[in-house]
Amino acid sequence: MSATRRQMLARTGATAASIAFTGAVSELFTGTATAAPRPSGSGYGPLVTDPDGLLDLPRGFRYKVLSREGDRLLSGEGRVPSNHDGMAAFAGRRGRTHLVRNHENRVTAPIAVPVVPGLTYDPMGKGGCTALEVDGRGEVLGERVAIAGTAVNCAGGPTPWGTWLTCEETEDRAGTNGYTKDHGFIFEVDGADPHRTGAVPLTAMGRFQHEAVAIDPDSGIVYETEDAFDHPFGLFYRFLPEKPRGGIGSLRAGGALEAMRVPGVPDLSTVQEPGTAFDRIEWVPVPDPLADGTPIRYQDFGPKGITHAQKLEGCYWGEGCVYVVSSFAHRSEGSAADHYGQVWKYEPRRRRLTLVIVFGPDTDIDLPGESPDNICLAPSGGLMVCEDGGGAQHVFGVTPRGAVYPMARGAQNVGTPERPEWGEFAGVTFSPDGRTMYVNCYHPGTTFAVTGPWR
């Protein structure tokens, strides 16, 4: 699950960060069999300073740089693009792993995803995905463009059939920023053979500021979050595909897009008590999924209106439910109430929405606290959480019992000695065998493989 912006919040003496939350932490760990909660300690010990100044890890762990912004792609297609973001790992043949990595490139990005025939949507778009093939020893066997010509590829989600859905977090139209086509779509990417999927927008899934997706493997329904930057804020959607059985290319057949309405709750930020549940959740057809005239969140959903939330970001599927994160809410920006992060659980069979966790204010140095960015289920149980904000940046682990511990700290100063800055982490994911944690540094774009005595 990808969650969003900086603070998980329960105090750990090993770092200056503080993390505090209320609610049923164990709810976050009801994922797949490979993420079954198991008893575990409170971490792997203090972080050891990296003499090379890249990544601090606990003793016994080591990292390898798989890819770095500006290096030559092994395919010969150009240079490794900027702004490494969301990522997923898929099992390949002979013990290999395929990584599909987003590049959240706007028109100002220093290094664009190279234009490749058959894999480019809009030649003026600088975003897209690259794919890496890694063998069992951690050697990179291949690195190539997987899709190009898209824009602001932030997060997304894996499909049950082993492809990646990459999401554009923009609503720019053709003619804006030099684009030749409309943007704001989801694209399917096959990391093993990108030409199987090409660069085809899944238009029926809506045109808006996409963040993440999660798929119900039984019904095939796709849940989508919208990270809108202005008020009224984003919506939570579901897409009912015409071909629910799935498979590469099946989502192109179209379907129906609906938005969630919580009766009597126009803004989720007003709900502050963990355990609060709403039954009889309604799903309302989206009047104009392509947003030809008006962005979806501004459209007329009838006299009852629709339910909005600021910073709807990560979502993932587990135990027959979809979990959704609202990163934060600020009254000063238009929300009805303030919070530092919420995790919601939606149960499709019961049509019930429950507030599971509320994050508390961060007391880290300099910042009043934001919320976590990318989150993934760890194979030994618990979560790995990427920070995204100012000051030192970490990957934190959270055990099923709620203990928070530091797993990695960025050591690359991308600011100045007077005003140091560290690139945020993103795209944390594990290899199919659970022995390697992959994680990106957003800037300077770097992909790390972390191995060691994982429990």
Features:
six-stranded antiparallel beta sheet, 455 residues, mainly beta, 35% strand, 28 strands
Tell me the number of strands: 28
The SSE string, one letter per element, is EEEEEEEEEEEEEEEEEEEEEEEEEEEE
Quote the average pLDDT: 87
**Main sheet attributes: strand count, strand direction, barrel closure:** 6 strands, antiparallel
**Helix content range:** under 10%
Query: How much β-strand is present in the residues?
Result: 25-35%
Shape: globular
Protein name: DUF839 domain-containing protein
Structure, explained:
The strands form 6 sheets. Strands 1, 16, 18, 19, 20 and 21 form a 6-stranded antiparallel sheet that branches. A 6-stranded antiparallel sheet has the order 2-3-25-24-23-22, with no helix packed on it. 0% of the residues lie in helices and 35% in strands. It starts with 20 loop residues before the first strand and ends with a strand. It has 455 residues and is an all-beta fold. The chain has one domain (21-39, 68-382). The chain is globular. It is built from no helices and 28 strands. β24 and β25 (404-410) form a beta hairpin.
